[in-house]
Structures are given as C-alpha cells and as structure tokens.
Amino acid sequence: MIGAPGAAIPAAEIVLWSGPNPPDVRLLLVLVGGIASGLVLLVKGMGGYRAAGRISGIAPSRVASIAVGEVLVTGTAEPIELTLVSPLQSAPCLYYRSRVTRTGDDSSDEVFREERAVGFWIRDATGQVRIFPRGAHFDVPDRYDESSGGWNGGAVGLQPRMGSAFGPGPDRESQIAALLTVHGSSSDPFGRTAAGSGSVPLSFGSGDRHYTEARIDAGDIVTVVGQVVPFEDLADPTAANLLDDSLVGANDPEVVADLAEARAAGLLEDTPAEAWGNAAIEGFGIGRPVRPPELDPAATPPPPGDPALAARAKAAFDIAPEALVLAGSADIPLIVSLGAPPAIAAREQGKFVLGLIGAMVAIGSAMTLALLLGGGVR
Hints:
Elements: H1 25-56, E1 69-79, E2 83-85, E3 92-93, E4 95-103, E5 108-117, E6 120-124, E7 127-131, E8 137-139, E9 142-148, E10 166-167, H2 172-180, E11 208-216, E12 221-230, H3 237-240, H4 253-265, H5 272-276, H6 307-317, E13 324-327, E14 335-338, H7 341-373
Parallel strand pairs: 7-13, 8-14
Antiparallel strand pairs: 1-6, 1-12, 2-3, 2-10, 4-5, 4-11, 6-7, 9-11, 12-13, 12-14
C-alpha cells in the first residue's frame, strides 16, 4: 500500500512481484534478446524488400543508350586506376566489407570493421560506364565466413593484409601472376613484407573470433542503380571515386581549410597536367611515359610509349567534362549489388522472409514477456 501524497514510502511496502514465484532473470534476458533480434531481422527484411522493389521497378538499360537520370545497368566490374587489397584474405578487389567479432565467456563485441570501395568500370556488350561509389549502398553477400579460437588457431583461408589497402592497377599480367602464386599464411599477395598503414592487427586478445568478408572482384557481374550525370557535375571527383573520404583527407579540418583557402586564392590548377607537369603522365617515373613529356631541348627523348597503355591511361585519367558517369545523389542513392537482377531479387526476397520470421519472433517474445510481467509490479 502506498501512503498519502508526499509521504515517504517504506521500502518494505514496495512489492516487486505479486505472483507465486518471480520469473527467471535468464528467461527475461532471452525474451528481451528475442525482441531485439526479431526487430533487427525485420528492419533488414524491409530494407531487402525495398531494394528488390526498386530493382524490379526500373527497366534495365544498355550502357550505350543511357541518358541523364536514374538508370539500372548490369555488366562486368572492371578496375580503372587501381584495386584494393581485402583485410582478411588479401584478395585484389574493387570493394570489400570485412568484420571480426570476438566472443568471450559472457560477451561478444566487434573488434575490427572496414568497408572500402574504389571507382570502377561496369561493362556490357554495348560499352562501359564509370562508377563513382561515394556514399553507395553495397548489397554484397559474404564470400568468407570462418571462425577460430585464436588468430593463429587456423581459421581456414585467413590471410591478413600486411601492407597498404591499395593494390596494383589493372595490369593483367601482374594480377594473373599474383593470383597464381602460392603464398604462406603471413605473406602478402603482392610481395609486400613490412606492415603499413593498411595492415590488419595480428591479435585481438583472447576469445573465439568470427571472420566475415564480402567482396566485389574484378570480373564479377554487378547491377548498379544510380543517377547518370555529366562528369563536370561531380562536385569533388577525387572524393567521389572512393566509398568515403577518409583516405583523401577531406575529414581533416586543416586540410579542408587549406583547400578552401587555395580555391579562394585561385591557386589550384584545373587539371593534373597543369598541377604536376610530367609527373601526371602515367609511366613517367617508373617505366615509359605513355605520351611524350615536356623535356629540355638538350635531353634525350625517351622511346615512344605503348599505344595500348596510352589508351588505357587516357580512358582512366582524361575524363571529358561532358562524359556520362554513374553516381549517387541526395535524391537518387547509388546501389551496387553483386549479381544480375534475378539473383538479386531472389536474395532480397530471402531477406524479406527472414524479416517476417523476425517479426513473429519479436511479437511472440513481447507477448510472453507481457504475460510474465503482468501484475508483477504494484
């Protein structure tokens, strides 16, 4: 019984449970966990339903016939300037999402997570279009899913990255050689031995570990939904060429201030050639320039470059202002999905079914919890 208003309530008069036996705390935790897990599955399922609806609601376009506006294109993903090296399997790729979780006796926590992408071509039978992945949502299932009791405990296929997150560009010969070379468990596929800024920590402490990694590799079939715009309409092509701006310094206030000051003063050049001179020519520092550099008249001119390499360099770096590219915007987000539309729709429908199951689990857990707690506090 509770006393008059304003009177102190003796602790002995507060009854926490009116039933014959208090509920098991562990059961309560399981029910609360069921509600939370069910809601998470429901949110993911609804996201999959919306993604499947968006993909099925847009007619596919051929690259040669795309026009400014929202499009859906399907084709082969191909590298442009460079590739990435995935953290957990050291695989050359165009996109990765890697995650490591540690499970102890009574807890589970995420100890490593990294997601990156670089710009790439998507090619179909009619042509190719450049993808700028800034801010994109990637629908890519895990390719690697293994568990281990320790980093050196033998998770099958685990090969931590030992160097930079960036790998070589689309040089077919070097990529074939890297893929066909057998490496040890601690070696890097490109011969790098010293740990760099992109190295993955080799120890996450005690506990069992679960490793997952999703990737888009060169040569994979992908479907992209986004907005076609002229290249000149991209506000910042350098940042747009990466999934986020963490690698180009755009999050650093000092860098942002310096760039703003340089733009205001007219100190930034319009093209790489104007800014860097011969250094902007591919192959000038290592190998042979793909086009004649500007040299002192007394200097010995280098031999002519490889025409094929020159054509690749021109396609990668000399982008015409009116060239159409595929990117995201505030009104039309960019979605990059692994596979062709039928496979994507089936995958997203599977997520939707799991979402419905999650909703049932959440409702059942909530009803059971309500029955247990009914009349439990007065």
